[in-house]
Specification:
single chain; alpha+beta; SH3 type barrels; 1 helix; about 35% strand
Length: about 80
């Protein structure tokens, strides 16, 4: 799978949804469809109670459903304070 600009755009948008105020079910090890592709959430770091920073590491799944760790994407939202 080749990641496109659209994949990156949606990954950047989705990281903001890890904030608990959005009440969307983003959990580590879950599989999400992001812009028509399957990604596994490898790690989430959410600090809404301290500095507001949010980050998420994801990797796409190949056609067999295996995680392609050669294409890990780390998406950061920065702070919201």
């Amino acid at each position: 799978m080749i990641l496109t600009d659209e994949n990156y755009r949606y990954l950047s948008e989705y990281i903001c949804w890890t904030d608990p105020k959005h009440n969307i079910n983003f959990r580590e090890a879950s599989i999400k469809f992001i812009y028509g592709e399957k990604f596994k959430i490898l790690k989430i770091k959410e600090n809404s109670k301290t500095d507001g920073n949010q980050a998420m590491a994801v990797a796409p799944l190949d056609e067999k459903g295996n995680v392609d760790t050669s294409q890990v994407v780390i998406s950061c939202a920065g702070t919201n304070i």
